[in-house]
């Protein structure tokens, strides 16, 4: 079992609770929060948690598909007064009993879990890699919801810099904690934004999936590492920094449109040093990321007059393999190829995995860079945070740095 070195930000206080059906709930308070430390108990009468789903292997690809039928019953685009992620009220007994800054809890309808071990199957990646007909396993793992704000609408881009930093701390701590659970092979924080992506809640939130296997995408990366060598991520970063598709860069992070971007809007962000996941970032890296990542998403929103739908995927190294080679990486993708047009995955992409780009990566980089600059110039919150950071030893006074 891998045990990464995790440094917590002690200025962001945690409060751990349990929901009425036994699920974990953790509050993460902003530095200098106005909230009282006491939090209400969950007094709802809830049905038992659904049984852990089963997954089936596709023998043509070796991939595992979790059949989580209980997810069919989840809430779909509720009105504000019935928002299940808002702080609970007498008229809306929600998933979060008290007001909060950031809240993390186990998903009520998970794709993986709540079981963490499959008593009827051999453990380990070798068993999962074997190809056969009719192979099934229990979809062990864990799925968590990360509420970015108590507000009914918004996204990561709509947060303050301080709140963005609290969310990033939650990602780092939960990555650390989930990586220690039995049966977990990979941890994946992400945010789906916009109905065009398929979101079922307007509330600003993301999710964290903890998989019982190394995901197909990461297996492809491992195959590329085998072909290229262990310095692949570092060489990609150096190549992009020397090119013309960089969107923004700081002391610790660089964001760029990749050379072979598939989507009309696609931006990657890499840390400058090798970091396998959020748990192994240091506080200075998280501080800068709160400014740069928020700036990037606000710029993507500024491309057009209406908010941009996207998937923000934080690819992390697997828990137990290739951690010294696979680097933490953000991949933001959007199907928006024009103000009123979306790219749909049709025959070539969906059926064959053979992508055809609609916009050159160089033109996309120019468009996004200009939008980021426009957005940043109008962002008084970011300007204040940047000035404060430049005038002190750290963006948040009193922190111990590592």
Automatic annotation (TrEMBL):
Residues covered by the Galactose-1-phosphate uridyl transferase N-terminal domain = 83-214
Instruction: Return the InterPro entries for the record.
Output: GalP_UDPtransf1, GalP_UDPtransf1_His-AS, GalP_Utransf_C, GalP_Utransf_N, HIT-like_sf
Specify the Galactose-1-phosphate uridyl transferase C-terminal domain's residue ranges: 242-369
* Pathway(s) the chain acts in: Carbohydrate metabolism; galactose metabolism
Checking SUPFAM superfamilies in the record gives: HIT-like
- GO MF term list: UDP-glucose:hexose-1-phosphate uridylyltransferase activity; zinc ion binding
Q: Name one GO cellular component term.
A: cytoplasm
Q: What is its EC number?
A: 2.7.7.12
Swiss-Prot/TrEMBL GO biological process terms: galactose catabolic process via UDP-galactose, Leloir pathway
Superkingdom, natural source: Bacteria
Cofactors: Zn(2+)
Q: Keywords, A to Z?
A: Carbohydrate metabolism, Galactose metabolism, Metal-binding, Nucleotidyltransferase, Transferase, Zinc
Pfam families per UniProt: GalP_UDP_tr_C, GalP_UDP_transf
Q: Which reaction does it catalyse?
A: alpha-D-galactose 1-phosphate + UDP-alpha-D-glucose = alpha-D-glucose 1-phosphate + UDP-alpha-D-galactose
Which family does the entry's similarity section mention? Belongs to the galactose-1-phosphate uridylyltransferase type 1 family.
What protein is this chain from? Answer: Galactose-1-phosphate uridylyltransferase
Q: Which organism is it from?
A: Cryobacterium shii
Taxonomic lineage from the root: Bacteria, Bacillati, Actinomycetota, Actinomycetes, Micrococcales
């Amino acid at each position: 079992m891998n045990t990464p070195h995790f440094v917590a930000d002690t200025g962001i206080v945690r409060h751990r609770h349990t929901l009425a059906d036994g699920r974990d709930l953790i509050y993460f308070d902003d530095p200098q929060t106005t909230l009282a430390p006491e939090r209400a108990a969950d007094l709802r009468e809830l049905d038992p948690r659904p049984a852990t789903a089963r997954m089936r292997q596709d023998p043509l690809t070796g991939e595992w598909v979790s059949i989580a039928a209980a997810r069919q019953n989840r809430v779909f685009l509720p009105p504000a007064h019935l928002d299940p992620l808002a702080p609970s009220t007498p008229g809306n007994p929600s998933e979060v009993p008290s007001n909060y800054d950031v809240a993390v809890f186990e998903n009520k309808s998970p794709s993986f879990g709540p079981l963490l071990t499959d008593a009827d199957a051999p453990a380990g990646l070798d068993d999962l890699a074997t190809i056969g007909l009719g192979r099934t396993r229990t979809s062990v793992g864990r799925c968590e919801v990360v509420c970015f704000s108590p507000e009914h609408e918004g996204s990561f881009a709509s947060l303050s810099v301080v709140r963005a930093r609290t969310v990033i701390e939650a990602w780092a701590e939960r990555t650390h904690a989930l990586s220690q659970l039995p049966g977990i092979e990979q941890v994946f924080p992400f945010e789906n934004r916009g109905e065009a992506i398929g979101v079922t809640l307007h509330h600003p939130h993301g999710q964290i999936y903890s998989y019982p296997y190394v995901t197909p995408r990461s297996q492809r990366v491992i195959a590329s590492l085998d072909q290229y060598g262990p310095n692949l991520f570092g060489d990609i970063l150096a190549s992009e920094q020397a090119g013309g598709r960089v969107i923004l860069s700081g002391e610790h992070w660089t964001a760029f449109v990749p050379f072979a971007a598939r989507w009309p809007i696609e931006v990657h962000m890499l840390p400058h040093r090798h970091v396998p996941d959020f748990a192994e970032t240091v506080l200075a890296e998280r501080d800068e990321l709160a400014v740069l990542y928020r700036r990037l998403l606000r710029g993507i929103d500024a491309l057009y007059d209406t908010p941009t739908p996207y998937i923000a995927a934080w690819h992390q190294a697997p828990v137990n393999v290739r951690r010294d080679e696979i680097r933490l990486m953000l991949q933001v993708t959007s199907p928006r190829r024009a103000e009123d047009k979306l790219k749909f995955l049709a025959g070539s992409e969906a059926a064959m995995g053979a992508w055809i780009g609609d916009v050159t990566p160089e033109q996309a980089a120019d468009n996004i860079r200009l939008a980021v600059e426009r957005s940043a110039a109008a962002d008084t919150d970011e300007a204040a945070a940047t000035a404060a950071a430049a005038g002190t030893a750290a963006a948040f006074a009193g922190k111990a740095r590592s």
